[in-house]
């Protein structure tokens, strides 16, 4: 599907309303200031007001992940699909109340925080399930579009004030739930069941739980949310609406630029690609505080807000990919992803609350905190600069390393993931027949079988001709007609390195061009 030729229905960007809700209520203060302790000063109560919504979300997400094998995914319970957005919407005003009685104020806030935390957690998982079953190209288009749209929605709310702003923010969960209801189809429910079976089969085959294959990604998201959340210590909620709106416009523009660069050519959205963009932006924000003190707060806030949007985008796409690869069910993968996000926020809030007195009294407190944040930020980013995996791209490299575990027929997880590989954007050569763009068309087994057979042939030829794991990875791309520029951007390597690998592959296979390589693979099918 070419998005320039076919408009995306509004219902498919319903995740934008959920994203806008959390930014309006918790991240920007666009809907107003949340209720705070109105009684005697108490550090314990300050922690209660700051952490209760996050703890409610985390506990709900943990329950979803642990109970999914027994009770099923949230989308398998229609009543829950209806209840989650309604519960979130009607409880949102409670966390903005400012009652004169400190006890009643605390009770009202805790009720609202628990209900919004639980309801929104279910909505995060539901949209994660949706992104896990839609085609790769569509998810890579919808997620950035939703992020940009969310920033614009927050900008709209920031132009209002009082209960009008709170009412608008409270409406967003309802709109998100409605969009999900209109988007979720029985075909997608069937695809989710296939992914569930794939995850169960993968767990039995590897004797590893859904958490085992996560590697660096989840912990990187966790670390980055600690950074952007702890940066909230520099947040000045007394800033004028004009500064907040300028910050939101900056975030929307940054997301639009990054998204357009990621989807406009052969490059695919990858962890390395997004981290490479966000690290300099956040470093500039912290450097502004180091150089200009309080005058640098707005720039850091803009960078932090843009970072939040970006890392929410990373979490949504990456963990959808995690489910699509058969390593976890969609509900488990999405729940796990948002646990990392909320846990990072939680730790960041604790750090911010704990060091506020130090920052206020230490003469170089801002300088020290900003410098440490830059160091941690760079270290986390360096972990991902070598991560060449696109979110929804999977080659048979891992299985190449374990040929003894291969069977004559591919397992369900491999089949489902490989069915997402669409035709190359660059139609330079004739490529092998591949599945249709949307693997929602599950009425025939032929596309899956063709893609799975292609994977088997790539592995077989790689073993026979002594290809290295990296060469196998590039061989898999070449066999699908991918060009050298595509491989360069896909694997984040230089053009010369990609061309050298291709030359070695041709020599080992005894072919002289990519078309001859494709013919070789096609004849082996």
Write down how many β-strands occur, each being a DSSP E stretch of 2 or more residues: 0
What is the SS-derived class? mainly alpha
The portion of residues forming beta strands comes to under 5%
Indicate the radius of gyration in whole angstroms: 24 Å
Q: Give average pLDDT, whole number.
A: 77
Which blocks of ≥5 consecutive residues have pLDDT under 50? 1-6, 388-449
Structural domain tally: 2
Helix run count: 20
| Oligomeric grouping of the chains | single chain
Helix content percent band = 55-70%
The N- and C-terminal alpha carbons lie at a distance of: 27 Å
Which sheet architecture does the biggest sheet show? none
CATH architecture classification name of the largest domain: Up-down Bundle
CATH superfamily of the largest domain: MFS general substrate transporter like domains
């Amino acid at each position: 599907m070419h998005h320039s030729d076919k408009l995306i229905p509004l219902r498919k960007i319903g995740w934008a309303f959920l994203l806008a809700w959390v930014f309006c209520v918790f991240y920007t203060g666009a809907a107003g200031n949340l209720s705070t302790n109105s009684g005697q000063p108490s550090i314990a109560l300050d922690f209660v007001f700051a952490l209760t919504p996050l703890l409610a979300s985390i506990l709900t997400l943990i329950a979803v992940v642990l109970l999914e094998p027994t009770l099923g995914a949230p989308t398998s319970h229609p009543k829950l699909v209806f209840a989650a957005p309604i519960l979130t919407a009607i409880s949102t005003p409670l966390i903005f109340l400012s009652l004169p009685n400190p006890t009643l104020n605390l009770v009202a806030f805790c009720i609202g925080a628990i209900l919004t935390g639980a309801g929104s957690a279910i909505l995060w998982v539901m949209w994660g399930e949706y992104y896990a079953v839609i085609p790769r190209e569509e998810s890579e288009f919808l997620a950035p579009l939703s992020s940009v749209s969310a920033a614009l929605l927050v900008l709209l709310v920031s132009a209002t004030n009082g209960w009008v702003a709170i009412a608008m923010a409270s409406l967003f969960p309802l709109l998100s739930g409605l969009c999900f209801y209109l988007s979720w189809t029985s075909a997608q429910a069937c695809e989710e069941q296939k992914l569930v079976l794939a995850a169960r089969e993968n767990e039995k085959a590897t004797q590893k739980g859904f958490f085992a294959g996560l590697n660096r990604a989840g912990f990187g998201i966790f670390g980055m949310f600690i950074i952007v959340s702890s940066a909230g210590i520099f947040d000045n909620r007394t800033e004028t609406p004009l500064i907040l709106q300028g910050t939101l416009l900056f975030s929307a523009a940054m997301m639009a630029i990054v998204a357009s660069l990621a989807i406009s050519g052969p490059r695919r959205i990858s962890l390395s690609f997004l981290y490479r963009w966000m690290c300099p932006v956040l470093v500039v924000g912290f450097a502004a505080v180091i150089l200009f003190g309080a005058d640098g707060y707005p720039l850091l806030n803009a960078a932090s807000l843009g970072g939040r949007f970006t890392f929410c985008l990373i979490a949504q796409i990456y963990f959808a990919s995690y489910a699509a690869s058969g390593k976890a069910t969609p509900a488990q993968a999405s729940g796990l992803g948002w646990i990392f996000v909320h846990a990072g926020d939680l730790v960041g809030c604790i750090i911010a609350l704990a060091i506020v007195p130090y920052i206020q009294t230490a003469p170089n407190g801002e300088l020290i905190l900003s410098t440490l944040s830059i160091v941690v930020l760079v270290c986390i980013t360096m972990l991902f600069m070598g991560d060449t995996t696109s979110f929804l791209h999977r080659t048979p490299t891992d299985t190449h390393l374990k040929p003894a575990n291969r069977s004559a027929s591919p397992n369900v997880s491999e089949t489902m993931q490989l069915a997402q590989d669409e035709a190359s954007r660059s139609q330079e050569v004739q490529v092998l027949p591949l599945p249709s763009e949307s693997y929602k068309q599950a009425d025939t087994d032929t596309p899956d079988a063709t893609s799975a057979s292609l994977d088997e042939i790539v592995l077989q030829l790689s073993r026979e001709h002594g290809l290295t794991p990296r060469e196998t990875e590039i061989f898999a791309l070449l066999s699908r007609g991918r060009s050298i520029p595509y491989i360069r951007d896909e694997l984040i390597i230089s053009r010369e390195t990609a061309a050298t690998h291709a030359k070695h592959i041709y020599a080992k296979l005894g072919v002289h061009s990519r078309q001859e390589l494709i013919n070789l693979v096609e004849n082996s099918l």
